[in-house]
Amino acid sequence: MLCGQVPFQGARSGSPHSRAADIINKIKEGDFVMQGESWEHVSDEAKELVKGLLTVDPSCRLNLSELKESDWLCGGRPLSSTPLMTPDVLESSGMATKTFVNATFMAFKRGKREGVFLKSVENAPLAKRRKLKQCSTGGETRSGSSSSTSSSSSTTTATTTARSPKSRAPPQNHRPAIS
């Protein structure tokens, strides 16, 4: 949305026609570049914000507080006069951009077709802290069970893996107890 080109294709891809599998791997590995003609009008602050949001490691990724305090959102800089990359602007920039966007959408469709499954959060840092706290106080948390820690959507990461349909558990949509 900042420049009309996804950051998972670019100078390092070598080809404007990246395969869907390549795009998925780049997303999983955090392999992205924000260089080239389409990124030259995007501010350094905006690029830093995107890098922070696309960080693969959740413990290093920007959280909401950091996002709200980012230089790009709060910098007080005058609004950019760079034209928004609308479909008309993108279309006039040639087929390469359209190809990049289509390849990204195909990658996501493939991921959806193969399935996105939630990993267990039993070993997530938050679950470990809650277990330690529960053991040290000798009492139970408000939820009264450990099921809330294993279904917490805030500590769950999605991954595309091949599993049999029998091993897929339906997601539980409740919030964990606040300690």
From TrEMBL:
Its EC number is 2.7.11.1. The keyword Cell wall biogenesis/degradation does not apply. Keywords: ATP-binding, Kinase, Nucleotide-binding, Serine/threonine-protein kinase, Transferase. It is an enzyme of class 2 (transferase). Gene3D superfamilies: Transferase(Phosphotransferase) domain 1 (1.10.510.10). Residues 1-73 form the Protein kinase domain. Residues 129-179 are annotated as: Disordered. InterPro entries: Aur-like, Kinase-like_dom_sf, Prot_kinase_dom. It catalyses: L-seryl-[protein] + ATP = O-phospho-L-seryl-[protein] + ADP + H(+); L-threonyl-[protein] + ATP = O-phospho-L-threonyl-[protein] + ADP + H(+). The keyword Kinase applies. Residues 136-169 have a biased composition (Low complexity). GO terms for molecular function: ATP binding; protein serine/threonine kinase activity. This is non-specific serine/threonine protein kinase.
